[in-house]
Design a protein that fits this description.
The complex is a heterodimer of chains A (about 160) and B (about 475).
Chain A (H helix, E strand, L loop, with lengths): L1 E2 L8 H4 L5 E5 L5 E7 L2 H17 L8 E8 L2 H20 L1 E12 L2 E10 L13 E2 L5 E3 L5 E8 L1
Parallel strand pairs in A: 1-2
Antiparallel strand pairs in A: 2-3, 3-9, 4-6, 5-6, 7-9, 8-9
Helix pairs in contact in A: 2-3
Chain B lengths: L5 E4 L2 E4 L9 E4 L2 H7 L4 H8 L5 E12 L6 E8 L4 E2 L11 E5 L5 H4 L3 H11 L15 H10 L1 H6 L5 H5 L17 H10 L9 E10 L2 H7 L6 E7 L2 H21 L12 E2 L3 H36 L3 H4 L3 E6 L1 E10 L2 E10 L2 E2 L18 E4 L7 E5 L2 H6 L3 E2 L9 H8 L4 H7 L3 E4 L2 H6 L8 H10 L4 E13 L1
Parallel strand pairs in B: 3-4, 18-19
Antiparallel strand pairs in B: 1-2, 2-3, 4-5, 5-13, 6-10, 7-9, 7-11, 8-9, 8-19, 12-13, 14-17, 15-16, 16-19
Helix pairs in contact in B: 4-11, 5-11, 8-10, 10-11
Classes of the chains: A alpha+beta (about 160), B alpha+beta (about 475).
Chain lengths: ~160, ~475
């Protein structure tokens, strides 16, 4: 489902049932992802799912490979972009496609995460479109009704 | 934000200075384009760029303007080298994304029987998909650093192309001041894996024919004539550039806080040109730009090789010389006349092309009389244009013009439009062969997703920002 980009509005799902989720947001040249969750961890997991969905469509990766990451940032917003660009780099260079994401620590300046996933196989998950980077354009994390909501624009 | 727009004349629109803007906005467009632009955020982005410190002249947008991330696509902004800033977002992730055009001695009729084989061979010889790279091109770190320092010249010395090619590339195929030590290990790693690859999205390789000449004097100087086969290559610095941009945006976010620069959008983060952060970015950006020049040079060599193999002709018979190579995502230190005096400026072109006039010393000798060639790709179903730079561009836009058609539809809207259709078969019926890797790419890149580039170049010409020389029609399109 794709919605018009309008900052600050709550996705219907959020106010209804789903505590976490993501959707694609229209942009003339690129694409946006809107993600939400009941915790900041859920928000980050949804953002990762949305990123790979843009590239590959929905995937269910196996848990054969493991990866531990530690990232630093200046606030949750910048950390969120750093997180997505880290995943893009791991995907591009190490062919790592995440399946399971467990945060050990997620604070405004630092995240530590354990990932399980598979070695990316183009036959299994054909590429839909490549993403160059997650950008900081109009980046904002909001807290509607205590939940976490963010829109991130991707450069395609 | 509701941006005010005042019409100056048929093709010029002013965004008056308001709030934090340090300068006004100037958009080149026709009335219909402006109406469409009011629906999106591009005009707001023009106004946002005008708030950055040290801007000289207006924050400008070319007629292919559309919503970008940070700067608008089609944006041109110049900053004073002493008092102004440099912004990685004003160049974008794909540093020195650009276009080059090769001529040939072939006619459309001559290659028609082998067109499909040519398309297949190019698709095989020029890596486009995820993770693909030529097996015969493996760089070590030392060689990669040479690529970053020397650009297209590195490729020529390694046997890919001729010294003559270098004369026909913007800046001679190498930006000065590149410093590989300013480029992270991660960027270097991504670069090594992707040198000599086309990439995906709007990047392409196209066999075309010249279907119309508009200016015979300039066409003659460029070696173009009706019915002739040409080849266009559109790609950039690949993952290396994306990583350089991302690395330096992180630094610039901190630098903006350090220098007290208020940002209307974080993607516009910047630092004074003379600051250590500004200088580090420019040195890294130049390296990435040189990587892109080398990338297009390598692909050129494989294009020539593919033609030679399929058609069984030698280079002397094919005469696939390089007409020109332009950057359209770049920041360059240039000297311009502004308000009656000579100024050193850092000119950002984000989806815009340099368009120097006749007689400019940086224009190759062969084109000195006609102006610098400007290559404007359109969509894959219609046509592309070749223009030359004009004095008007030099006077008004720091020697800049448009870079392409500009998207009209979002990717989602484009996909919705092709639902139940087969765009590849449709294009084939019009005599255009498409070879593509990404499943969604072709649907999202359908001709209807783009503005009519003829409309864009018409505005450019009438506004005096370029002169139309030739129109090229696609015959075979290779996409990542």
């Amino acid at each position: 489902m794709v919605r018009q980009a309008e900052g600050g509005t709550l996705p219907d799902q959020l106010s209804e049932t789903a505590a976490c989720g993501h959707e694609l947001v229209e942009h003339t040249a690129d694409i946006g992802i809107r993600c939400w969750g009941s915790s900041v961890e859920e928000l980050f997991v949804e953002a990762a799912r949305a990123l790979f969905e843009v590239m590959l469509g929905p995937t269910v990766a196996t848990r054969d490979e493991a990866l531990c990451l530690e990232l630093h940032g200046y606030g949750f917003e910048e950390l969120l972009v750093a997180w997505l660009n880290e995943l893009l780099y791991r995907f591009e260079i190490e062919n790592f496609l995440p399946g399971e994401i467990v945060f050990e620590q997620l604070e405004a300046q630092r995240l530590r995460v354990r990932l399980k996933g598979e070695r990316y196989d183009q036959q299994r998950w054909p590429i839909e479109r490549q993403v160059k980077a997650a950008t900081y354009h109009l980046l904002r994390i909001e807290r509607p009704a205590g939940s976490w909501l963010a829109t991130i624009y991707l450069d395609l | 934000m509701n941006v005010k727009v005042q019409q100056i004349d048929q093709y010029r629109w002013r965004i008056p200075r308001e709030g934090a803007m340090r300068s006004e906005g100037l958009v080149f467009a026709n009335g219909e384009m402006i109406e469409r632009l009011r629906q999106e955020k591009a005009l707001e982005q023009v106004a946002n760029v005008a708030t950055l410190p040290g801007i000289v002249g207006p924050s400008m947008a070319m007629p292919d303007i559309h919503w970008g991330y940070g700067f608008p696509i089609g944006g041109v902004a110049a900053f004073d080298v002493e008092h102004g800033v440099v912004s990685p977002g004003g160049v974008g992730y794909d540093i020195n994304c650009g276009v080059r055009l090769l001529r040939s001695a072939l006619s459309r009729e001559e290659i028609a029987p082998q067109l499909a084989e040519l398309a297949d061979t190019l698709y095989r010889n020029v890596p486009a998909g995820v993770g693909s790279q030529r097996r015969d091109l493996r760089l070590n770190l030392r060689e990669e650093k040479q690529v970053l320092r020397r650009g297209a010249a590195w490729a020529v010395e390694a046997g890919f192309g001729s010294a003559e090619d270098l004369e026909h590339i913007e800046a001679g195929g190498v930006l000065p001041g590149a410093d590989p030590e300013r480029i992270s290990d991660r960027a270097l790693e991504r670069g090594r894996a992707q040198l000599g690859t086309l990439g995906s999205g709007n990047h392409f390789l196209e066999i075309q024919h010249v279907d119309r000449i508009f200016a015979t004097d300039a066409a003659e100087a460029l070696g173009l004539y009706e019915g002739q086969i040409t080849v266009s290559i559109h790609t950039g610095s690949r993952g290396l550039g994306y990583q350089v941009c991302d690395d330096h945006i992180k630094t610039m976010l901190q630098a903006s806080r350090k220098y007290g620069i208020t940002l209307p959008d974080r993607q516009l983060c910047c630092a004074p040109v003379q600051s250590s952060e500004g200088q580090a970015y420019l040195a890294a950006m130049a390296g990435a730009a040189n990587f892109a020049f080398a990338n297009r040079q390598l692909i050129t060599a494989w294009v020539r090789e593919s033609f030679e193999r399929v058609l069984g002709k030698g280079p002397a018979e094919l005469r696939m010389g390089l007409i020109y190579d332009v950057c359209h995502n770049i920041a360059k230190l240039e000297t311009h006349q502004f308000a009656g005096r000579s100024r050193q400026l850092c000119v950002h072109r984000k989806g815009a092309t340099r368009a120097y006039p006749p007689g400019h010393p940086e224009t190759p000798a062969a084109y000195r009389q006609i102006g610098q060639p400007v290559l404007i790709p359109g969509d894959m179903g219609r046509y592309s244009f070749v223009l030359v730079g004009t004095p008007g561009a030099m006077e008004e836009t720091f020697g800049s013009t448009c870079h392409g058609a500009g998207r009209l539809l979002s990717r989602h809207a484009a996909k919705k439009l092709v639902r139940g259709r087969n765009p590849i078969a449709e294009l084939a019926r019009e005599g255009i062969l498409v070879r593509a890797t990404g499943r969604a790419t072709v649907a999202e890149e359908i001709p209807e997703a783009y503005k009519d580039v003829a409309e864009v170049v018409e505005v450019v010409e009438r506004a005096g920002l370029g002169r139309i020389v030739a129109r090229l029609r696609p015959l075979a399109v290779i996409k990542g």
